[in-house]
Amino acid sequence: MDRITTFWRLIRVWLNRHRVQLGLTIRVTFAAALSLAVAQFAGLRLPLWAVLTAVVVTQVSVGGSLKATIDYLLGTIGGAVYGGAIAVLIPHPGEWAMLAVLALAVAPLALLAAINPRLRVAPVTAIIVLLVPTFTHVTPVASAIDRVFEVAVGGITGFLVSALLLPSPAHEQTIQAAARTLDHMARALRTLLTGLTQGVDTEALHRLQDGIGQSLERLGVVCAEAEHERAARLASDPDTAPLMRTLLRLRHDLVMIGRAAQLPPPKALQPRLEVPIQGAAAAIADYISAVADALRSRRQPPPRDGVETALQAYTALINDLRREGLTRALNAELAERFFALGFALEQMRQNLKDLERCAREWSGEGRGPATAGLAP
User: Fold this and answer.
1) Are 45 and 128 a contacting pair, CB within 8 Å?
2) Whole-angstrom Cα distance, residue 318 to residue 326?
């Protein structure tokens, strides 16, 4: 029984950890099957393109599916119109003529797709419109119309499945991604401020900063999808831009702290700096972790009293060191990094105020059911 209980517990943990991926798997499978059924019912010439489109536009979030559907439809319509026009206006009875027409159809659309990635499907559509008639014996105009209808069926089916079957709103993914980024920042901050009294290895510092950068990059993608939901009135959650800007500024503060941490202060100052720095590190990191937990559970963020107390103690110590003239003995590089740390911590204090405000906006407390999830 113990083995069975342990096995099922592991299964539940795995399912909970991968619930987003499992939801996407179910949606993609259902979208593919449903788009095929709709295409066959509508009598489309090539249901394959409807199924492929449904699979492509079914994304992790509702906002991602909406963006993919719009982009796919825009690219398809543009490619179908241009490819169909080229096929009709320029005769191409032979192989060399077909090669010339194909190049003329693809080159401008490839340039547009390179300039605007939203149109990346346009060259593919133009190729299909040109070449399908040679296999199915239909006119280029009919090929273009078929292509638009096939993509429309697949795109609309994929989006509806994403929105109705186990929906995963991008705004919910935004706060989860923001919370993970904050957790990463808290761990990095503890390491960096500890390194101020001992020094931090440059390679380790780069790994910390790169990890935060990757987290922010993923967050930026999710935020863009969330804004598509807001624009389409599929969600009424707060604007993601202030939260993203605040996290970027906190990342910049960490970069400044990381530079200061590469060189430890003189040994004469280390005994007096160690306790205030450790206190500031613990207070700020604990607060950032607490805000991450508040975001996940949509609660109000905790007060910043511990952060203010720790930073005031650090500032008081720095003022004492300056009055005693101990900072004058620092060389230029150490002095620059020493005072840069004070500036970075003060900037972090201000940015934590903005983080608190963002967390309050995202809090579910006091919000009615109509504004807690998808917009009515």
Assistant:
1) no
2) 10
Residue with tokens 């390491």: 191
Residues 212-224 have a mean pLDDT of 93
| pLDDT on residue 294 | 95
3-class DSSP state for residue 265?
Answer: coil
Q: Largest alpha-carbon pair distance within the chain?
A: 92
> Could you tell me the domains of the chain?
2-164 (no CATH), 171-372 (1.20.58.220)
Q: How far is CA 289 from the centre of its chain?
A: 20
DSSP state of 235: B
| Burial zone of 107 (CB within 10 Å; 0-12 exposed, 13-18 middle, 19+ buried) | exposed
- Write down the residue that tokens 């169909």 correspond to: 84
DSSP 8-class letter at 46: -
Q: Which residues contact 11 (CB under 8 A, 6 or more apart)?
A: none
Q: pLDDT tens digits for 154-191?
A: 999 999 999 999 898 998 999 999 999 999 999 888 88
Q: For tokens 């019912």, what's the residue?
A: 41
Least confident of 80-84, 139-143, 300-304: 139-143
Which residues make Cβ contacts (< 8 Å) with residue 312, sequence separation at least 6? none
The pair of three-digit structure tokens given for residue 134, joined into one six-digit string: 């040679």
CA distances from 85 to 143, 201, 369 (A): 11, 62, 51
